């Protein structure tokens, strides 16, 4: 793949629909409206698979939020990627410096801001029971899903890898013997298309299949004012994804086979130089988000595919499960990191981004990647007061990473540096868990997991960076560690409808290795370990017209892995903090206010703090104001970050949805659906600076629709980010006050047919 392919200028076509909405308070969560009936309505039982069994969420001693049905459809109507879930679940944040290609997840403030393509994350993403380890696998589009579950706190005794913070779990709609499907088409601002559909049904009396597909595209709606630059339009994309599944149901045996693929062709994250006012976190005056002035290339290409085989044998007293998964990815992401170096010298009367000390244009690629996973698990089949499950898990990943640098100021944009990283990661684990009914009302659960993790890493410079590191290498690093994770919890039924629970769990993340050879060499962070405590209440209220979940928590992290990115020398250094603590609470609530009005609320408070008096990181190189104490190390100025909150960890998250239906007949209705999400400010980096601390955000959506034939058909108009808030959601700090922004306001129309 050539890093010099052109990016076409696709001017935005905006056809806004005029909508008005009163201000609503931001608060939270999850559910689905049924057609009006003569009998009083009630919430369906919320079943989840948080413990690898189908259970009522009320009986699971874990803080969990499930998103199903209409809410997923509404939030994704504008063609946004997986980041639309950020702030829509208590304690969940998602951001990216790669755009759609590389989402980074944070639960209760624990995450990883590292942008390297082999970065490990403490939040594990599990798609159809297969862990997605590479950051480039975590952004697979959401379509034709049975539901989403977000499990907060360590989950390592049952799920995949690296779960000290929690798990985000996606389950596709399964094939069945009942034929069904749907088609959904949405069109909106910036010539955005969001088309998806699925169909499934029987092939024989034992075989069934389901095919699902998605296509999304948007025009380049940001224009480059520098007409001689190689890239003229930005923020557009074309993306397609498909999944085919085959299900065999025999006597005592079930096999579910899955093949899936994704292809993304668009622009990379758009970095905008000097858009932040010095001394504040406000945008500069006369800022226009529809224009930039930049001189570099910009594109993002990503292709992934994979498959899995999930087999299940009913052996009578026990059931044996086998889950085999294979994933692979190939990508190249090229961006003008300085935000427009040559564009700063356009002359009088021409727009430019202001002073930029030096140019920086780079690309990161994944030319070779593959991941194998295998799990065998045995679970008991209703052994009375005691049930259990146990198994083994194997993980094998091999990845090669290309890092390129380019000379923006020389005709032809020649490559000026090339470094290669290679990493082989093998891990295996053995785990067991069980639950025991101490009494009819009190149940104890416990789990334990032994993990062994090994990484072999090499890195080399193949072409020197101008004025930088000479051709050198290979540099070699490795790690080989083991650990025991565990959890213990109890659930007590206070009444038939109200459960109280408490849980303590230990999580673990294996060491990480990075090789930024052009800017500082190979660095390594040791293992991190988490002890988490939580307690809560889960209740069905008012004859199941309402559901409540409330939890309080605290966690302590020993040796938390952190990444110090940027600084004057544009380094990226892995390090361990001596200790980090986090504490707070979470609320999930949903209720039918009337038979036709459904309210959901969610809220979370997360107070995080780094506790390491000696931890020092390089400060910004682009005019920011450091508010931390500083120290001098080897002639350089460093910030002491003891007492700071974790980056990208909003203290407050609130969300709300409200759906009101107005029946026309027994089979049709008009409806109004609104959703709002609030996130408080966050630090972008480990040090504190007003320029690199986001402003709070409140984004809302509105949907006006009509469905008929008992919900088989639906037509609606919608708006996303109705208030048209413009927020800096991330930054680059080594060169200037460069930031990147949230998604723009969009309007559209959508039609859905189910069959």
TrEMBL record:
Source organism superkingdom: Bacteria
TonB-dependent receptor-like beta-barrel domain sequence ranges: 287-722
Lipid bilayer topology: Multi-pass membrane protein
UniProt domain TonB-dependent receptor plug: residue ranges: 57-167
InterPro entries reported for this sequence: Beta-barrel_TonB, Beta-barrel_TonB_sf, Plug_dom, TonB-dep_rcpt-like
Compartment(s): Cell outer membrane
Signal peptide: 1-31
Family annotation (Pfam families): Plug, TonB_dep_Rec_b-barrel
GO biological processes: iron ion transport
Keywords: Cell outer membrane, Ion transport, Iron, Iron transport, Membrane, Receptor, Signal, TonB box, Transmembrane, Transmembrane beta strand, Transport
GO cellular component, one term: cell outer membrane
Gene3D superfamilies in UniProt: TonB-dependent receptor, beta-barrel domain
The keyword Signal appears for this protein: yes
Family the UniProt entry places it in: Belongs to the TonB-dependent receptor family.
PANTHER family, per the entry: FERRICHROME IRON RECEPTOR-RELATED, TONB-DEPENDENT OUTER MEMBRANE RECEPTOR
The name this protein goes by in its record: TonB-dependent receptor
Native species: Stenotrophomonas lacuserhaii
């Amino acid at each position: 793949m050539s890093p010099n392919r052109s990016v076409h200028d696709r001017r935005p076509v905006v056809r806004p629909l005029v909508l008005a909405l009163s201000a609503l308070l931001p608060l939270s969560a999850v559910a689905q409206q049924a057609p009006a009936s003569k009998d009083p309505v009630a919430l369906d039982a919320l079943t989840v698979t948080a413990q690898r069994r189908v259970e009522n969420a009320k009986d699971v001693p874990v803080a969990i939020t499930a998103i199903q049905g209409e809410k997923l459809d509404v939030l994704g109507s504008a063609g946004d990627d997986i980041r639309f879930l950020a702030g829509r679940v208590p304690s969940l944040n998602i951001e990216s410096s790669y755009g759609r290609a590389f989402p980074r997840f944070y639960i209760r403030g624990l995450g990883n801001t590292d942008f390297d393509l082999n970065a490990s994350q403490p939040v594990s993403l599990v798609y159809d029971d297969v862990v997605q380890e590479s950051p480039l696998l975590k952004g697979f589009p959401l379509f034709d899903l049975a539901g989403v579950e977000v499990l907060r706190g360590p989950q390592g005794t049952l799920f995949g890898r690296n779960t000290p913070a929690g798990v985000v779990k996606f389950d596709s709609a399964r094939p069945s013997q009942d034929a069904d499907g749907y088609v959904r088409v949405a069109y909106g601002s910036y010539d955005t298309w969001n088309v998806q559909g699925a169909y499934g049904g029987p092939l024989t009396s034992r075989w069934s299949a389901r095919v699902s597909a998605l296509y999304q595209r948007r025009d380049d709606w940001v224009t480059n004012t520098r007409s001689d630059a190689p890239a003229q339009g930005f923020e557009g994309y074309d993306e397609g994804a498909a999944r085919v599944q085959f299900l065999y149901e025999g006597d005592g045996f079930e096999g579910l086979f899955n093949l899936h693929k994704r292809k993304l062709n668009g622009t990379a994250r758009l970095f905008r130089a000097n858009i932040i006012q010095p001394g504040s976190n406000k945008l500069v005056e006369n800022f226009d988000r529809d224009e930039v002035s930049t001189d570099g290339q910009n594109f993002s290409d990503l292709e992934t595919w994979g498959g899995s085989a999930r087999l299940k044998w009913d052996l009578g007293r026990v059931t044996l499960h086998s889950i085999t998964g294979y994933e692979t990815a190939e990508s190249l992401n090229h961006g003008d990191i300085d935000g427009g170096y040559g564009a700063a010298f356009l002359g009088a009367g021409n727009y430019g981004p202001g002073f930029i000390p030096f140019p920086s244009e780079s690309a990161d690629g994944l030319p070779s990647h593959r991941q194998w996973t295998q799990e065998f698990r045995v679970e008991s089949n209703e052994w009375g007061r005691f049930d259990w499950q146990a198994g083994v898990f194997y993980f094998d990943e091999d990845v090669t990473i290309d890092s390129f640098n380019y000379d923006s100021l020389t005709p032809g944009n020649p490559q000026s540096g090339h470094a290669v990283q290679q990493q082989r990661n093998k891990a295996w684990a053995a785990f067991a868990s069980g639950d025991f009914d101490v009494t009819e009302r009190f149940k104890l659960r416990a789990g334990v997991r032994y993990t062994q993790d090994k990484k072999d890493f090499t890195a080399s410079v193949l072409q020197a960076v101008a004025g930088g590191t000479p051709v050198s290498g290979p540099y070699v690093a490795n790690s080989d560690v083991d650990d025991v994770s565990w959890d213990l919890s109890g659930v007590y039924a206070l009444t038939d409808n109200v459960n109280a629970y408490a849980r303590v769990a230990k999580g673990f993340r294996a060491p990480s290795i990075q090789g930024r050879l052009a800017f500082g060499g190979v660095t390594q962070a040791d293992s991190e370990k988490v002890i988490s405590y939580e307690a809560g209440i889960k209740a069905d209220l008012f004859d199941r017209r309402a559901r409540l979940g409330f939890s309080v928590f605290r966690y302590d992290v020993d040796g938390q892995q952190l990444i110090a990115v940027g600084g004057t020398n544009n380094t990226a250094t892995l390090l361990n903090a001596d200790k980090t603590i986090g504490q707070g609470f979470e609320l999930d609530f949903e209720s039918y206010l009337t038979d036709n009005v459904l309210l959901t609320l969610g809220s979370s408070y997360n107070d995080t703090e780094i506790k390491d008096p000696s931890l020092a990181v390089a400060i910004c190189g682009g005019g920011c104001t450091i508010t931390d104490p500083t120290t001098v190390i080897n002639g350089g100025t460093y910030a002491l970050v003891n007492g700071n909150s974790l980056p990208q960890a909003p203290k407050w998250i609130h969300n709300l949805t409200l759906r009101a239906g107005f029946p026309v007949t027994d089979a049709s209705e008009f409806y109004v659906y609104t959703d709002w999400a609030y996130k408080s400010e966050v630090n972008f980096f480990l040090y504190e600076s007003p320029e690199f601390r986001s402003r709070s955000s409140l984004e809302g959506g509105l949907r006006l629709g009509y469905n008929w034939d008992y919900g088989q058909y639906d037509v609606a108009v919608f708006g996303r980010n109705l208030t048209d808030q413009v927020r800096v959601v991330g930054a680059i700090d080594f060169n200037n006050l460069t930031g990147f922004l949230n998604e723009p306001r969009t309007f559209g129309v959508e039609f859905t047919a189910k069959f």
